[in-house]
Amino acid sequence: MGEVRPGSPAETEAILARGEVIGIAEVVAGSNRVFQVQLEMDGEALTAVYKPARGERPLWDFPPQTLYRREAATYLVDKALGWGLVPPTVARPDGPLGPGSMQEWVAGPPEGAAPDRLQLQEELRRLAALDVLVNNGDRKAAHLLLDPGLHLRGIDHGVTFSAEFKLRTVLADLGGEALPGAIMAALASLLGDRRRLGALQAGLLQLLDREEVGAFRRRAFELQRSGRYPLLHPFWGRPFGG
């Protein structure tokens, strides 16, 4: 994991992975069971979102009890690109209700504070590109949050990484637009570095099956080749229920 600095993503990941659960409360939201947990390790405390595999509603088009792994896999891709859009997330085998994902809780922005519009547009375009890469089948507006620093954070990435095309997003209107230069540069940097790309793929293979990881790799190179957000169907390209 390298050097672990207080307050760094690496420290957050360590607490998520190994911190003692000292409090848990169910959050009533969505069709799957979600819990807010309090973690503590070496005197450091952290609030997190815990999604146990056993609380996942079965889906016909995804293997059972794999959604939590997809949450962690999406974080790995975001981390590899250096975008900081997805809160630190790990797949933890020893959660209070069994295996599940642990993700840093996103506190809201200060009351009355408003984000910089240009910054938000840039972050939305990065998130839209991330959704293409992970094949996000359910990007709702409710999954877009602002953190205390007024930066965009994307959550709820369980319906991702299918080997079949499933992209559905509230950001569908970006379809056909050219990717911003900074996004193209980030893609080129990752895909052109065998060591970094290999490390990412190895991490994904701990969470996904080989076919899904292969499909991710193909999507990444195709997005780089096209340089544009994909055009989506005006109805089927948007998430159901929001």
Features:
34% helix; alpha+beta; 5-stranded antiparallel sheet; 17% strand; Transferase(Phosphotransferase), domain 1; globular; two-stranded antiparallel ribbon; 6 helices; 7 strands; 242 residues
What is the topology, as strand order, of the major beta sheet? 1-2-3-5-4
Structural class: alpha+beta
Terminal CA distance: 38 Å
CATH topology: Transferase(Phosphotransferase), domain 1
- Global mean pLDDT: 94
Number of helices: 6
So what's the overall shape?
globular
> How many structural domains in the coordinates?
1
| Computed CA radius of gyration, to the nearest angstrom | 17 Å
CATH architecture: Orthogonal Bundle
Fraction in beta strands: 15-25%
Query: Which CATH top level class fits?
Result: Mainly Alpha
| Residues in helix, % | 25-40%
What kind of sheet is the major sheet? Answer: 5 strands, antiparallel
Order of helices and strands: HEEEHEEHEEHHH
* Overall number of strands: 7
- Spans of at least 5 consecutive residues whose pLDDT stays below 50 are none
Describe this structure in words.
With 242 residues, the chain is α+β, with helices and mostly antiparallel strands. The protein has one domain (9-226): Orthogonal Bundle (Transferase(Phosphotransferase), domain 1). 34% of the residues lie in helices and 17% in strands. The protein contains six helices and seven strands; from the N terminus they run αβββαββαββααα. It has helices at residues 9-18, 67-81, 117-134, 181-191, 194-205, 210-226; strands at residues 20-27, 34-41, 44-52, 89-92, 100-104, 144-146, 152-154. It has a five-stranded antiparallel beta sheet with strand order 1-2-3-5-4, with helices on both faces. Strands 6-7 form a two-stranded antiparallel ribbon. α2 runs antiparallel to α5. The radius of gyration is 17 Å and the shape is globular.
